[in-house]
Amino acid sequence: MICIDIMEEKRYHIKTGYSVEDVAGQNILIAPSFENVDYSKMLVLSESAAFVVNLLIEHSLTFDEIITALNEEYEAEDNVVKAELTELLERFTQYNVLA
What we know:
Layout: E1 11-12, E2 19-23, E3 26-30, E4 43-45, H1 47-58, E5 61-62, H2 63-73, H3 78-94
Antiparallel strand pairs: 1-5, 2-3, 3-4
Helix pairs in contact: 2-3
């Protein structure tokens, strides 16, 4: 008998309570509780990063699903989109905002 493990693709989701707010014309990722905010680690988001955050607040998505959504919204080379998304998700991991 052959046993095959099927691994689920990792899904990304922003933790509950985070939001993107416009502060003085900048997209800022806001933590759910101002009591514990480390202002040195607040994230100023580009338009496309804010787009990704809003997607991940509403849905739990795979890397490929995020890429598809970005490609539908923006015109950019696929390798550039993948590299920038990888960097963005790494930063979200560092700041512990992913669920």
